[in-house]
Specification:
The complex is a heterodimer of chains A (215) and B (142). Chain A is of the alpha+beta class and 215 residues long. Helix content of chain A is 57%, strand content 19%. Chain B has a single domain (4-140), classed as Rossmann fold (3-Layer(aba) Sandwich), CATH 3.40.50. Classes of the chains: A alpha+beta (215), B alpha/beta (142).
Amino acid sequence: MIAATEAAGWAGMQFFGRTTASVSHELKNALAIIKENAGLLNDYLLMMDKGMPLEPDRLRLVTGRIDQQTQRADDLIRHLNRFGHSVDEKFTSVDLNEVLALLAALSSREVSMQQATLNTEVEASPVMVKTTPFWLLTLLGHCLSFALQVMGPSKDLVVRVTKTEDGGLIRFEQLEKMRQHPFPGESESALFEVLGATYRTEPEKKCMEIKLSNC
Amino acid sequence: MSEKILLVDDETDFLEVMSERMGNRGMEVTTAESAQKALQEVEKGGFDAIVLDLMMPGMDGLEALKRIKEKRPSLQVILLSGQATLEKGIEAMKLGAMDFIEKPADINELTEKIRKAKAQKMVLVDKEMESKLKSIINAKGW
């Protein structure tokens, strides 16, 4: 168990690093667009000083972009903040619907870099499980990376939350090439152990599911 | 004569605003949203410099840089990145990038680098022409 905890801890650190690097990269992109649009407004002012007329529609376009990118940056920071708070409690009740939504938000760049589409399907009501939220996110992050590696040519992934009698499960679907790649690896095995979670792979159905309990 | 630039980035909002700002500074800008589209534009030729994002879906900036240099060795490439690590910078220079800038970039700094890129390209093109002429002269025995 000590070895599993250490391995899970290190996997968590790596996931933390990878996630913050990815989100901060996206933030930089949003800030770059805001900066350039602010610069463009400055360009328009200089042009006005030289007597060139300014079309209100152009201004609206620029301010619209600034507004949109500010919202994007705010969303990114909000998700990063929630991720940061996932270590507040070592063992607590969480809603798998919300965990999946956060995972999707944190992984959006990883998914788009693979030119893939991630479709999430959640239950209408909360699916509560008792777990270590940060390690759960780490495990699901690893599972998503695996799913991106083994997805089919359509590059469409589906991740689904389903309520069970004693908790819930998260199912990764359309894993066309899963037979060709070993899973779980050392990190994932350690995470399953420390989380007390179980998994099942169904290569014929091209899916994999992780089961968690609310006890 | 204005600089002819190919601007490559997967963020369309960034492409739109940068191409307008560069256009306001007298440059002729073509945009491409992916490395693949950029390579198609490079095939058409006529660019003085390329401003290329490092991290893009599919083919990334470093792979695109390699292929651009294979097709058009004299074309100057300036890499833009949201995460300008020393490691990536060195790799980019080894592959033949002219420069490596971190986003958000200062437009005046970028404009200056583009002007230098055009000048550098002209020097290389002149050298290439000179070399070709020498080959012809030698071949003819003049």
